[in-house]
Specification:
Chains A, B: It holds the Pfam family MerR_1. The structure is a homodimer of 216-residue chains. With 216 residues, chain A is mainly α. Chain A has a domain of 84 residues: Multidrug-efflux Transporter Regulator, Chain: A, Domain 2, CATH 1.10.1660. Chain A has ten helices and two strands.
C-alpha cells in the first residue's frame, strides 16, 4: 500500500507517519519510484505499537526507539520483551532526596515485596521506576500523618495481584508476540483511569451502604 | 496557641495559614490584642483537612470553601458529608464531545453500573465527574482498538469494590466525622499511586510467571 492508504488504515496523518519514519520508529517502505514507497501489513502493525507507546503511553520518542529494539530482539524471552515496553513507560518521579519518611517508606516497600514473594520487584528493586513510585507514594502518606504498615498494604497488594492476572489474561488473547506487547502497553495505561474511576464509584457505593442516614 | 505555634504544630508556614484565613478556609482565631489571636485544637484539625483537600487533593480554593461548608452542614448525613469532599476532588476532564465511541462507552458504563447494582453511580450518572472519567477511559480504549465489553469490566469492578471496602475500613478507624472526612480525601488520593504501582509490580510478577524462558 502507498503512504496515503497506510495513513487511512492506521488513522494517523501522513505527517505523523513521516515523522516516525525520520525518527526510526518505523522501517522505511520498499522504494518503488524516486518519490513513492510501498508499505505492508508489518508497517501497519508497527504503527499500532508506536501509537501505543508514544501516544497512549506518553513515552519519549528516543525511549520508544530503544524499546522497539528490545521488543524485536529475539535473543530476549517474551517476558523481557513485554517488560521492556511496559517498564519503560513514564512514571511520576521517584523520591528526590532521602527524607526520613523516604527511608521508612523504602523499608516498608521492601518488607511488603518480601512478604509477597514478588521477586521481580526485589530483583530490580532500587532502580525500578515502579518501585520508586511506590516508595514515593508511601512517603507522601507518612508525611501527611497516614503511615501505612505492611499489614495495611497486603490486602491492597493481593487485589493488585488479581488485577494483574486479569490484565495478562487479556494480553494473552492476542496471538502474536508483537500484538501482545502492544496490548500490554495499551491496557496497562488505558485501564488505569478505568480502575481509578471504578474505585471511586465503589467508594461512593460503600459509603452509602455504611453511612446513609447516619448523621453522627 | 499563637500563630507561630499553630504553624509549628501543623507543619504549615505562617504565610500559608494567613492565606487560608484570608480565603475563609480557616475561621479566625480569638482576638487577644490588636495584633495577636489565639488558636485552638479545632484550628489545628481544620488545617489538616484543608491540607488534605488543597495540597493533597489539588482542589481549587473556591471549591474547598464550598466543600468545607458541606462538611460542616449538620443537616446532611455522614454519607453526604464524606461524599461532598471526595466527589469534589478534581478528575481528568470528561468526554469533550459525543464521538461514536463516547456514545458506545456511555452505554457500556450504564450497563456495567446496572449489572453491579451500583445505584449511587446511576443516580448521579450523567453529572458525576467520576462517571465522566469512566466513560472517557472506555472511549479511549475503543478508539485504540481495545473495545471493552461489560463482561471484561465486571472482574475489574468487583476488585474495585473490594478496594473500596478496604478504603472505608481504614476511614472508619478514625473517630470523629471531621477526621473521617479528612482521611477519606487523603486516602482516596494518596492510595491511587500505591495501587497503580502495585498493579505494575504485580504485572511484572505475573508476566515472569507466565512467559519467562518462553521465547516464542
Amino acid at each position: 500500500m502507498r503512504l496515503s492508504e497506510l495513513s487511512e488504515r492506521s488513522g494517523l496523518s501522513t505527517a505523523t507517519i513521516k515523522y516516525y519514519l525520520r525518527e526510526g520508529l518505523l522501517p522505511p517502505g520498499e522504494r518503488i519510484t524516486a518519490t513513492t514507497a510501498e508499505y505492508g501489513d508489518a508497517h501497519l502493525r508497527r504503527l499500532r505499537l508506536v501509537r501505543a507507546l508514544v501516544q497512549v503511553g506518553k513515552m519519549p520518542v528516543a525511549t520508544a526507539r530503544e524499546v522497539l529494539a528490545a521488543v524485536e530482539d529475539e535473543s530476549l524471552d517474551h517476558h523481557m520483551r513485554l517488560g521492556a515496553a511496559v517498564w519503560a513507560l513514564p512514571h511520576p518521579p521517584g523520591p528526590a532526596k532521602e527524607a526520613p519518611e523516604t527511608t521508612a517508606a523504602r523499608r516498608t516497600a521492601d518488607e511488603l515485596l518480601r512478604r509477597l514473594g514478588w521477586q521481580y520487584g526485589l530483583e530490580v528493586g532500587p532502580v525500578s521506576p515502579t518501585y520508586g513510585m511506590l516508595v514515593n507514594a508511601l512517603a507522601a502518606l507518612a508525611r501527611l500523618g497516614y503511615p501505612h504498615a505492611v499489614e495495611n498494604l497486603l490486602p491492597y497488594a493481593r487485589l493488585a495481584g488479581e488485577l494483574a492476572v486479569a490484565d495478562l489474561d487479556l494480553v494473552e488473547e492476542y496471538e502474536t508476540p508483537a500484538e501482545q506487547v502492544e496490548a500490554a502497553v495499551a491496557l496497562t495505561v488505558l485501564l488505569e483511569p478505568v480502575l481509578l474511576s471504578l474505585r471511586r464509584l465503589a467508594e461512593a457505593e460503600e459509603s452509602h451502604r455504611r453511612f446513609r442516614g447516619d448523621s453522627s
